[in-house]
């Protein structure tokens, strides 16, 4: 018989909080329990100061559930998103951290704990899907690495994780001697993706508390080592899931990717607004598929109109980091797991991405906003 949430709650009664405290289910700290087939996921709410003390409770809960018949894997994480003790029978994503009205939420740095050894965490986001957010995130990461920086990529795009494909990586990451997961690596960049943790056929399992569990695990239980920058590929859009995720991640700032079309710009504006509302600095806008350069004659065509993102950035008072042309080489190399910035470092597109990466790094390090990357001229 398939296991039920009630069975799991019963079994978890054996787990007690430290110092002879209540049983885990009675403590009101359990999130909703999500069951899909033989996989189970839930989170345990803690106060940030309890992280160390509660680590053994998390481990015991996981072992307890994995020992149950009908369970092949349990994903249990500690979350400090809501006050410990508050009853949690609703998915985390259904409880946006946004407060009612127009009040601003506290800065993410006050909420999300820093990741040890990681200097800057940068979200790459877009107001809507399909604008080339992941391709841009991947190539910016490689551009940063080309500048000699230590770079990691965390793929938090729950709707369609694409970093495994973009970096040409597959397989399951393994745990190291310290029990932390060792990220996979290619082209000198460490990569961790929801795509490594979930079967392709069951992407919808990463909903509600599972999303938060996976993000928490990828942030806290992965051995990232020392990084100058961690790039986080966010899910496209500006809904509550994105907002919650942004707030749970200790972001230094965000980069918004947009195409020149009006619609996308409207969406990009929403993206900017989402980060501004949460007091996460917008480090810049990248215009993707800005121009088409004829591979035969070099003629530059502005298929979708041009300059929209630059003007919009100006209006919004956020930096414009640069523009990436629409080009088959970018599509083909990305889709084949051979990103252009790593494979053709002397080519024009690698130059563009390195320029964007350089401007981003400067903004990060200065804490100020440089207006844009140097213009790249195609001759
Ligand atoms: N500058 C570009 N020139 C040509 N093709 C591009 C460019 N940027 C992205 N693409 C292609 O567009 C497609 C969508 O890109 P990508 O997956 O990066 O978008 P996304 O915004 O992350 O999408 P999703 O919403 O699915 O997460 C891919 O096939 C990619 O190779």
Name the features.
379 residues, disordered C terminus, binds adenosine-5'-triphosphate, single chain, Rossmann fold, 9-stranded mixed sheet, alpha/beta, 12 strands, 3-stranded mixed sheet
The biggest beta sheet reads: 9 strands, mixed
The end-to-end span amounts to: 68 Å
Strand coverage percent = 15-25%
Please report the first level of CATH classification, the CATH class of the largest domain. Alpha Beta
Number of helices: 13
CA-based shape: elongated
The CATH architecture of the largest domain can be given as: 3-Layer(aba) Sandwich
Question: What's the count of strands?
Answer: 12
Q: Helix/strand-derived class?
A: alpha/beta
Q: Secondary-structure element sequence?
A: HEEHEHEHEHEEHHEHEHEEHEHHH
Which assembly state applies to the chains in this document? single chain
Tally of discrete structural domains: 2
Outline the fold blueprint:
Blueprint: H1 5-12, E1 34-36, E2 39-45, H2 51-66, E3 73-79, H3 108-111, E4 118-125, H4 133-146, E5 151-155, H5 163-166, E6 184-186, E7 189-193, H6 194-197, H7 208-220, E8 227-233, H8 240-248, E9 253-258, H9 262-277, E10 282-293, E11 300-301, H10 308-316, E12 320-326, H11 328-335, H12 340-343, H13 348-366
Parallel strand pairs: 2-3, 4-8, 4-9, 5-7, 5-8, 9-10, 10-12
Antiparallel strand pairs: 1-2, 6-7, 10-11
Helix pairs in contact: 4-13, 7-8, 9-10
The structure holds adenosine-5'-triphosphate.
């Amino acid at each position: 018989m398939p296991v039920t949430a009630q069975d799991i709650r019963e079994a978890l009664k054996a787990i007690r909080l430290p110092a002879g405290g209540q049983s885990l289910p009675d403590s009101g700290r359990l999130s909703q329990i999500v069951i899909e087939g033989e996989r189970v996921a839930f989170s345990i709410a803690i106060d940030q100061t309890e992280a160390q003390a509660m680590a053994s409770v998390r481990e015991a809960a996981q072992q307890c559930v994995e020992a149950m018949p009908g369970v092949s894997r349990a994903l249990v994480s500690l979350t400090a998103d809501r006050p410990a003790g508050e009853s949690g029978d609703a998915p985390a994503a259904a409880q946006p951290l946004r407060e009612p009205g127009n009040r601003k939420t506290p800065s993410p740095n006050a909420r999300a704990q820093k990741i040890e050894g990681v200097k800057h965490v940068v979200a790459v986001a877009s107001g809507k899907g399909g604008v080339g957010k992941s391709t841009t995130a991947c190539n910016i990461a490689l551009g940063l690495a080309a500048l000699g920086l230590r770079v990691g990529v965390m793929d938090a795009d729950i709707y369609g994780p694409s970093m495994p494909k973009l970096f040409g990586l597959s397989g399951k990451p393994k745990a190291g001697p310290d029990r932390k997961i060792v990220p996979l690596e290619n082209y000198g960049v460490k990569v961790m993706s929801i795509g490594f943790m979930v079967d392709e056929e069951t992407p919808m399992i990463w909903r509600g508390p599972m999303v938060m569990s996976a993000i928490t695990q990828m942030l806290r239980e992965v051995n990232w080592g020392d990084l100058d920058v961690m790039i986080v590929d966010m899910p496209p859009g500006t809904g509550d899931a994105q907002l919650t995720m942004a707030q749970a991640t200790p972001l230094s700032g965000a980069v918004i990717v947009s195409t020149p079309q009006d619609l996308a710009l409207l969406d990009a504006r929403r993206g900017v607004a989402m980060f501004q509302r949460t007091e996460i600095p917008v480090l810049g806008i990248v215009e993707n598929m800005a121009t088409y350069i004829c591979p035969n004659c070099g003629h530059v065509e502005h298929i979708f109109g041009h300059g929209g993102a630059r003007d919009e950035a100006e209006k919004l008072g956020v930096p414009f980091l640069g523009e990436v042309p629409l080009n088959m080489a970018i599509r083909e190399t990305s889709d084949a797991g051979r990103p252009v910035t790593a494979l053709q470092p002397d080519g024009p597109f690698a130059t563009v991405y390195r320029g964007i990466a350089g401007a981003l790094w400067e903004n990060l390090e200065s804490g100020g906003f440089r207006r844009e990357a140097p213009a790249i001229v195609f001759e």
